[in-house]
């Protein structure tokens, strides 16, 4: 079965009402990104970081998957599909995609600050004093700047065996996520759907890259229709 690798960034969720990062002057919902998304930020002001992610987690109740998330699910009718996302929202899950790798963590999970392997599902607010089973404070299960990306190896393995790649709504500024496309086998088809595409070093070296300069709900939908209508 032909394997499609979907690489998504904040732009795919923009039309669901979730802000992107670099469209807002380096601020994330009004905050300096390093204050809310780094170990230093957590050490400086735990209350601010907890409150920030509580708000992001609550926002998930007010948003829904859009036509692009749903089209990606539809691709499973004919292809093996693996979604590798930089997003921490759950919109791919709610659209029904079966195989999802979250490179930068998930809003609906928390983990122990004392034992990284203790990860819990968490859909409510997280407070100071909420502890893991071993008695350590819990923190958002988010990969902050400067931290390891534990899912990177499995993402690379998937990319090495892909046939068709669709990059959607990412500025390709954050590594190692932006370098994953370098693992696409030679000869694979690569599409990039973004109204303001940023052609990174990795992408510029890819002969045959097809840029679809559209919003995700338009560009992904029409590309998926085309892929589903292919004879083979
Ligand atoms: N459809 C498709 N793409 C869109 C849309 C849309 N409707 N609206 C905006 N975009 C594009 C922008 O043109 C931009 O290229 O989405 C991209 C968003 O880029 P960023 O804000 O940089 O988001 P992303 O690439 O996902 O950021 C990567 O940075 O701060 C970290 O960890 C955070 O995962 C995040 C990472």
Strand order of the largest sheet: 5-4-1-9-10-11
Mean pLDDT: 95
Count of DSSP-assigned helices: 9
- Report the sheet-strand fraction: 15-25%
Low-confidence stretches: none
Q: What is the H-and-E element order?
A: EHEEHHHHEHEEEEHEEHEH
CATH topology of the largest domain: Rossmann fold
Briefly note the structural class of the backbone: alpha/beta
* Helix proportion: 25-40%
Question: Which radius of gyration do the C-alpha atoms yield?
Answer: 18 Å
Number of strands: 11
CATH class of the largest domain: Alpha Beta
The end-to-end span amounts to 10 Å
What is the annotated CATH architecture of the largest domain? 3-Layer(aba) Sandwich
Structure in words:
Strand 2 and strand 3 form a beta hairpin. The relative contact order is 0.18. By secondary structure, this protein is an alpha/beta fold. Helix content is about 30%, strand content about 20%. A 6-stranded parallel sheet has the order 5-4-1-9-10-11, with helices on both faces. Strands 7-6-8 form a 3-stranded antiparallel sheet. It folds into 2 domains: about 140 residues, TPP-binding domain (Rossmann fold); about 80 residues, SIR2/SIRT2 'Small Domain' (2-Layer Sandwich), CATH 3.30.1600. The site of adenosine-5-diphosphoribose has 23 residues, from helix 1.
Task: Describe the structure in brief.
This protein is of the alpha/beta class and 232 residues long. It contains 9 helices and 11 strands.
Q: Any key phrases for this structure?
A:
232 residues; Rossmann fold; SIR2/SIRT2 'Small Domain'; 2 domains; 6-stranded parallel β-sheet; 29% helix; binds adenosine-5-diphosphoribose
């Amino acid at each position: 079965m032909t394997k499609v690798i979907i690489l998504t960034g904040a732009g795919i969720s923009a039309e669901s009402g979730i802000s992107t990062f670099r469209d807002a002057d380096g601020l994330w919902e009004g905050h300096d990104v390093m204050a809310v998304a780094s170990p230093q930020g957590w050490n400086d002001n735990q209350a601010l970081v907890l409150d920030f992610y509580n708000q992001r987690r609550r926002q998930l109740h007010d948003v829904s998957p859009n036509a692009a998330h749903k089209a990606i699910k539809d691709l499973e009718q004919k292809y093996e599909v693996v979604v590798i996302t930089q997003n921490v929202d759950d919109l791919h899950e709610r659209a029904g995609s079966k195989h999802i790798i979250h490179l930068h963590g998930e809003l609906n999970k928390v983990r122990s600050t004392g034992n990284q392997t203790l990860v819990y599902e968490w859909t409510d607010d997280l407070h100071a004093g909420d502890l893991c089973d071993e008695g350590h404070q819990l923190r958002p299960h988010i990969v902050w700047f400067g931290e390891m990306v534990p899912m990177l190896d499995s993402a690379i393995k998937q990319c090495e065996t892909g046939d068709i790649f669709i990059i959607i709504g990412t500025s390709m500024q954050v590594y190692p996520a932006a370098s994953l496309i370098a693992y696409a086998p030679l000869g694979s088809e690569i599409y990039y759907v973004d109204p303001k595409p940023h052609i990174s070093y990795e992408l510029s070296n890819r002969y045959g890259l097809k840029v679809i300069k559209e919003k995700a709900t338009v560009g992904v939908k029409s590309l998926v229709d085309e892929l589903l209508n292919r004879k083979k």
